[in-house]
Amino acid sequence: MAPTARFSRVHAALIAGLALSTALTSGCTVDGTAVRDASLDTTVSTTTTGAESSETGTTGPSSTTTSRADADDITGTVWAGTDSDGGFYTFRFQSGGALNYTSPTGTWSAATWQQHGTAVYMEMNNRYAEYRGVIDGDTMRGSAGNITGKTWTWSLTRR
Q1: Is residue 22 domain-shared with residue 92, that is, in the same domain?
Q2: 16: burial class by Cβ within 10 Å (0-12, 13-18, 19+)?
């Protein structure tokens, strides 16, 4: 039986960005990656040439291109928003990959983050929970999961 999962443009960009990030951090050269969701008429492709890369998203007749090399460094920034369970979170992206965050249960600092172009990875409490997302201007959104198997989505805005 074929899977019937539908991906949004952001999810497709996240998958393409993470594939590129994984390849780049493992020392590989990537000629091109494309993710296509025919049910949404959406294609997101990520291509690299040397140290440069770009991400292109197309939905129907309109398209946007964001240079991954020109993505703003989020070091020193604060982002806040909610998850799919309705919890409010604030993330403080500190230098050296340190992450401080406030969740419904308190403020914590046992966390780290990485940024690769528009792709962002965060882990909390020695990877008890892992967040993967994509930056689009002043919005960051993605999906997360923890070691118990729980998964959720989240959306943040730059403060």
Answers
A1: no
A2: buried
CA 45 from chain centre, in angstroms, equals 15
Q: Is residue 1 part of a domain?
A: no
Q: Is residue 136 a part of any domain in this protein? A: yes
CB-based contacts of 143, cutoff 8 Å, min separation 6? 11, 14, 131, 132, 133, 151, 152, 153, 154
Would you state the structure tokens that stand for residue 73, as one six-digit string?
């460094």
Q: Which tens digit of pLDDT belongs to each residue from 129-139?
A: 999 999 999 99
- State which residues form the domain around 13: 9-70
**Structure confidence by residue, pLDDT tens digits, 107-131:** 999 999 999 999 999 999 999 999 9
> Nearest 10 degrees: CA dihedral of 14, 19, 24, 29?
-130
List the structure tokens of 11. Answer: 């999810």
- Name the maximum alpha-carbon separation found in the chain: 47
Helix (H), strand (E) at residue 20: helix 9-25
**Is 35:51 a contact under the CB 8 Å cutoff?**
no
